[in-house]
Amino acid sequence: MEQITSPLEQVLKVLPYVIPFILLHLILVVISLVDLIRREKTLGPKWIWYPLILFITIFGSAAYLIFGRKE
Fold first, then answer.
1. Which residues contact 64 (CB under 8 A, 6 or more apart)?
2. What is the phi-psi region of residue 44: left when phi exceeds 0, alpha when psi lies from -120 to 50, beta otherwise?
3. Burial label, 21 (beta-carbon count in 10 A; 0-12, 13-18, 19+)
4. Which are the contacts of 11, defined by CB distance < 8 A and separation ≥ 6?
5. Which of 6, 36, 56, 61 sits CB 3.0–4.6 Å from 28 for a disulfide?
6. Based on C-alpha coordinates, what's the Rg of the chain?
7. Are 70 and 41 a contacting pair, CB within 8 Å?
8. d(CA 50, CA 57)
9. What pLDDT score does 37 carry?
10. How far apart (Å, rounded) are the C-alpha atoms in residues 23 and 17?
C-alpha cells in the first residue's frame, strides 16, 4: 500500500530546489531596480520598465539589463 503524503510534505520536499531560483530572482530584481532608479535615460520610458521588472519574473529583469539600459 502506498503512503499518501500531505501537500505540506510535498512542498517541503521540493523547497531546497526552489530556494536558489527564488534568491536569483530577488537578486536580479533588486539589481535591476537600483540600476533603473540611478540611470537618467533608458531605452523607452522608465515607467514601463518598473512593472516589467516586478511582474514578468526573471525575464523582465533580464530584459531590462540586456535591452533597457542606455549607455
1. 32, 35, 36, 42, 49, 52, 53
2. left
3. exposed
4. none
5. 61
6. 18
7. yes
8. 12
9. 93
10. 11
pLDDT digits (tens, 9 = 90+) for 22-70: 999 899 999 999 999 999 888 889 899 999 888 887 788 888 888 888 7
Amino acid making up residue 2: E
Q: Quick one: which of 7, 8, 9, 65 has its CA closest to 39?
A: 65
Cell reading at 1: 500500500
69: which strand partners? 42
> Does pLDDT of 7 surpass 90?
no
| Residues with Cβ within 8 Å of residue 41, at least 6 apart in sequence | 70
Task: Return d(Cα 32, Cα 50) in angstroms, integer.
Answer: 9
